[in-house]
């Protein structure tokens, strides 16, 4: 498994991994509309400073990772459902800590219990909750600091 920068010609596949992983949480249903929105968001966010990475498993994308380095922000980390439970999320988090070695903050949907519990086990500290008007979700904010 190779973690590397995503190429623009892979954005459709990145969006598919993102959608399938998000849908696996039970918080959304797969649709062409959702896929198109994620695809458009990828291009927009990359233009606005995302560093976008993929976990490449012999030419098949197994995960996506989006960082906003200027803000020490881990924006998205999604592992394809078939690749979950194999330590890939932990590898991506290790990769993130190499890129953002002093501090990382992230937001996680409150109802995505599996995700925020995992972040807590990985050393992230809960800071607050806040409603996200654009999505309607309540977000939990977490921070990790070196040392």
Question: What attributes does this structure have?
Answer:
4 helices, 147 residues, 7 strands, Aminopeptidase, three-stranded antiparallel β-sheet, alpha+beta, four-stranded antiparallel β-sheet
Please provide a written account of the structure:
The longest helix is centred in the first third of the chain and has 16 residues, at 32-47. Strand 2 (51-57) and strand 3 form a beta hairpin. Helix 1 crosses helix 2. The chain has helices at 11-24, 32-47, 88-99, 113-121; strands at residues 2-5, 51-57, 60-68, 73-79, 103-109, 125-131, 138-145. It has four helices and seven strands, in the order E-H-H-E-E-E-H-E-H-E-E. Helices cover 35% and strands 33% of the residues. By secondary structure, it is of the alpha+beta class. The strands form two sheets. It has a four-stranded antiparallel β-sheet with strand order 1-2-3-4, sandwiched between helices. It has a three-stranded antiparallel β-sheet with strand order 5-7-6, covered by helices on one side. It has one domain (2-145): 3-Layer(aba) Sandwich (Aminopeptidase), CATH 3.40.630.
- The total count of helices amounts to 4
CATH class division: Alpha Beta
The averaged pLDDT comes out at 96
- Residue windows where pLDDT falls under 50 for at least 5 positions: none
Q: For the record, give the distance between the C-alpha atoms at the N and C termini, rounded to a whole number.
A: 29 Å
Helix content: 25-40%
Summarize the structure.
By secondary structure, the chain is of the alpha+beta class.
């Amino acid at each position: 498994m190779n973690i590397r920068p995503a190429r623009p010609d892979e954005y459709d596949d990145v969006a598919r991994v993102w959608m399938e992983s998000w849908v696996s949480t039970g918080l959304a249903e797969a649709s062409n509309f959702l896929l198109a929105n994620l695809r458009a968001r990828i291009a927009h966010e990359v233009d606005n400073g995302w560093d976008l990475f993929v976990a490449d498993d012999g030419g098949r994308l197994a995960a996506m990772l989006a960082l906003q380095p200027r803000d020490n922000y881990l924006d998205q980390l999604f592992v394809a459902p078939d690749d979950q439970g194999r330590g890939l999320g932990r590898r991506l988090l290790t990769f993130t800590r190499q890129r953002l070695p002093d501090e990382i903050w992230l937001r996680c949907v409150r109802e995505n219990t599996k995700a925020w519990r995992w972040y807590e086990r990985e050393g992230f500290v809960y800071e607050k909750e806040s409603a996200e008007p654009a999505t309607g979700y309540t977000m939990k904010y977490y921070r990790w600091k070196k040392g």
